[in-house]
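Let us work through a complete example step by step.
Step 1: write down the sequence.
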Amino acid sequence: MKRAVLIPGLAALVAILFAASLMAGKTWVPFDAWFSNDPRWWIIVELRVPRAILGLAIGAALGITGAVLQGFLRNPLADPSVVGVSSSAALGAVTMIVVFSAMHPLAIFGGAMLAACGSMLLLAGLAWRSESAVAFILAGTVLASLSGALTAFLISVAPNPYAVAEIIDWIMGSLTDRSFSEVKLALPFIVAGCVLLLFTGRALDALTLGEGAARSLGVNLARTQMLIVLGAGLAVGASVAVTGVVGFVGLIVPHLLRPLAGARPGALLLPSALGGAALVLAADSLVRLAPGASEIRLGVAMALLGAPFFFVLLLKMRQQSWT
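Step 2: predict the structure and record it as tokens.
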């Protein structure tokens, strides 16, 4: 599909799903109640606008990060969790809840972002002077494993059962009851991270020819690594800090859009950002429409969608290896 058609089409889809996100929920708010004295209008203003903005921003961040990582690592199974930023941010938030007994959103956000920044610095140190994608993957795997183990340890030693409930609820990932305070906190970091990731397009295209060919074309692979570390750290760290862990967006979206955008990794970045935003907005609207008094957590819904997708992807790759 031509880029001149794909980008406007995805942008229009995001706009439609953004409007649907404002209307959908336990209380349906139709268009004729908007900008009126209808009390349902305040549900949109106070609750659903910040939630929809966060859904759009977080989906875009996860989508573009997945596309960048799959292009850089040349691995179709790469996901933002590969670099360990998601699990590190989760560890920071859990540390604030368990060790410092902090329940305020600002404290949890601060802990998550500090951990995300720390993980970026550690990843940069582990992969320093290495231009190989293998070293990058190994460093990210070490970070993810260590953060996951420490998070499990903190949960197991938490003395307060209410804190454990809060942690489990937060780890499941959700946009419920998010406000403009969270938007103001997270949006600048997410935008900065996405802008840094957009600068990697030319290097990702050159890497399809191999690392040696990319160097001969003038691509600085160490600089590309640093852009990815910083961009993914800021965008994914801020996303996890305000919603908890929402997985599989970065895995699913590039695969769905690659047949439309073409095989060139650089051409997939902007479509993946728009596709990620559309996917999270749609999923967040659907979880609010689920039967029952409470909502299904967004992270749980994405896992229910992403795990079968991952399994089918593995089977497809296995069949291709046999042929």
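Step 3: interpret the result. Residues 120 and 126 are 10 Å apart (CA to CA).
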